[in-house]
Design goal:
single chain, about 120 residues, mainly alpha
Length: about 120
């Protein structure tokens, strides 16, 4: 049960950090990160992307890859690509833009997680 609670903390942390980064990107760089979806719907899509990918990272990938370093790399690359595909369709944007958006959101949450040792 402790692992599941830790997962829920990780989910909340990831959603919060990625929402903050998404807010920052769309406010600081409105020309580069302008999407057809705006406001609360954009942030709902950011949260949805995390809801769709994080359970796989916590509950599926550990059974597929046993080396911790390789697990981190492969699961992060998988999340980056899956969320980019989701953003591509959900935000009706170019794939390069969706990939960059996904990369920046995930890099921020991963980096903050490392900094606070989450």
């Amino acid at each position: 049960m402790a692992y599941e609670l830790y997962f829920l903390q990780g989910l909340a942390f990831t959603i919060l950090t990625e929402l903050l980064m998404g807010l920052g990107l769309t406010r600081l760089f409105p020309k580069q990160f302008s999407f057809s979806v705006k406001g609360w719907r954009l942030y709902l899509f950011i949260a949805a992307a995390t809801f769709m990918t994080l359970p796989y990272v916590w509950f599926v990938w550990p059974y597929l890859v046993h080396d911790k370093g390789l697990y981190r790399v492969l699961s992060e690359v998988w999340v980056l690509l899956m969320e980019a595909v989701f953003y591509f369709f959900a935000l009706k944007t170019k794939f390069k833009k969706a990939l960059l958006f996904s990369f920046l959101l995930n890099a921020f949450s991963f980096g903050v997680g490392l900094l606070i040792k989450f």
